[in-house]
C-alpha cells in the first residue's frame, strides 16, 4: 500500500519542508500530503529554491500526493473573486506536481441546506471542477462534518448532483463513521469517486469534538481523545484489512493531530506495515495448504 505523510500534523512544530520529506523518506512513507497553508508559504518565501527541493524529493521516489486546502465555496462571495482564488490554488497544486486538490464542500452541514443552497454548492463545484480539469487537476471533496459531504447520503447527493467527472472524493473514515454510517459499507458505495483516504482515530465517540476546526487548529486546543489507529473506538484493523486486499484501493494519508508527531507517525506506519505483512503471510499459508 501507499502511505502519505500529512504536513498538517506538524502545524505547530518548528520544522522545514526538507526536514519533513527526509523524515518521510527515512520512515518509509511514499509521499506527502501538503497542507495548503504550507504550500502557499513555501511558494511565497522559498519559491526560488522550491524547484531544487522538489527535484531532490522526487529523486528519492517520494511524491506530493495531494494538496489540501480550503475555498469559500458558499456564502455571498462574488464568483469572480472565488474563481481568482481558485485559479491561484490550482496553480499552487501544479507547482507541487500533484493532480489532486482537496477542499471542503462549504461550511454548513447538509441538514442546514435547502434546495437553493444545494444548487449553489453543486453549480459552483461544477465550475471549479471545469477550471481545475483544464489544468489536469482533480477537485477532491472530503467527507467532513459541517459540510455538504457530512454523511453517506449527502456525499452521494453532492457527487451525483454536481455530476462532473473531475470531481473526486477524499474519504475520511473517521468522519464517515462519525456520521453513523458503516465505514466499510460507505467505502463500497463511494469507491468509484475515491482518490484518497484519510486515517485517524478517537478514543470514543464522546471525544469527537476534539477534531472540530476551531479546536484542532488552535495551538492551545484540547487533544483529549486523540489516540493511535489501533487504540480507538473505530475498528481501523477491519478497515485496513479491507483496503489491503483491494488492488484498486486509493492511497492512504495518515493524519495525526496530537503531540510528538515524529514518534507517533513512525509507530503508526509500523503498525500498518505489520498488518500488511501478517495478511500476506496468512494468504501464503492458505494458498500453501
Keywords:
single chain; alpha/beta; two-stranded antiparallel ribbon; 11 helices; 47% helix; globular; Xyl_isomerase-like_sf
At a glance:
With 289 residues, the protein is of the alpha/beta class. The chain has helices at 17-27, 36-45, 47-59, 79-95, 115-134, 152-162, 173-178, 183-190, 213-216, 236-244, 261-288; strands at 3-6, 31-35, 63-68, 100-103, 138-142, 167-172, 194-199, 201-202, 226-227, 252-254.
Percent range of helical residues: 40-55%
What share of residues are in beta strands? 5-15%
The helix count comes to: 11
Apparent shape = globular
Let me know the number of strands.
10
Low-confidence stretches: none
Instruction: Provide the succession of SSEs.
Output: EHEHHEHEHEHEHHEEHEHEH
Mean pLDDT: 96
Cα Rg: 19 Å
Largest sheet: 8 strands, parallel, barrel
Based on secondary structure, the structural category is alpha/beta
Walk across the major sheet and give the strand order: 1-2-3-4-5-6-7-10
Distance between the termini: 26 Å
Amino acid at each position: 500500500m501507499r502511505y502519505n505523510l500529512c504536513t498538517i500534523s506538524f502545524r505547530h512544530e518548528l520544522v522545514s519542508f526538507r526536514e519533513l520529506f527526509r523524515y518521510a523518506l527515512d520512515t518509509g512513507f511514499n509521499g506527502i500530503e501538503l497542507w495548503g497553508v504550507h504550500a502557499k508559504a513555501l511558494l511565497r518565501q522559498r519559491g526560488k529554491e522550491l524547484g531544487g527541493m522538489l527535484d531532490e524529493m522526487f529523486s528519492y521516489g517520494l511524491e506530493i500526493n495531494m494538496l489540501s486546502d480550503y475555498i469559500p465555496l458558499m456564502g455571498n462571495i462574488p464568483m469572480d473573486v472565488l474563481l481568482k482564488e481558485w485559479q491561484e490554488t490550482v496553480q499552487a497544486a501544479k507547482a507541487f506536481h500533484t493532480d489532486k486538490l482537496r477542499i471542503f464542500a462549504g461550511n454548513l452541514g447538509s441538514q442546514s441546506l435547502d434546495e437553493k443552497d444545494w444548487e449553489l454548492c453543486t453549480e459552483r463545484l461544477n465550475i471549479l471542477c471545469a477550471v481545475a480539469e483544464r489544468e489536469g487537476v482533480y477537485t477532491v471533496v472530503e467527507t467532513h462534518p459541517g459540510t455538504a459531504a457530512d454523511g453517506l447520503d449527502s456525499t452521494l447527493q453532492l457527487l451525483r448532483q454536481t455530476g462532473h467527472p473531475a470531481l473526486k472524493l477524499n474519504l475520511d473514515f473517521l468522519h464517515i463513521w462519525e456520521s453513523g454510517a458503516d465505514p466499510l459499507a460507505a467505502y463500497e458505495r463511494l469507491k468509484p469517486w475515491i482518490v484518497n483516504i484519510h486515517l485517524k482515530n478517537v478514543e470514543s465517540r464522546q471525544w469527537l469534538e476534539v477534531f472540530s476546526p476551531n479546536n484542532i487548529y488552535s495551538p492551545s486546543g484540547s487533544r483529549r481523545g486523540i489516540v493511535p489507529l489501533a487504540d480507538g473506538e473505530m475498528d481501523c484493523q477491519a478497515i485496513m484489512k479491507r483496503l489491503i486486499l483491494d488492488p484498486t484501493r486509493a492511497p492512504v494519508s495518515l493524519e495525526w493531530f496530537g503531540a510528538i508527531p515524529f514518534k507517533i507517525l513512525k509507530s503508526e506506519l509500523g503498525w500498518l506495515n505489520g498488518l500488511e505483512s501478517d495478511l500476506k503471510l496468512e494468504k501464503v499459508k492458505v494458498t500453501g495448504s
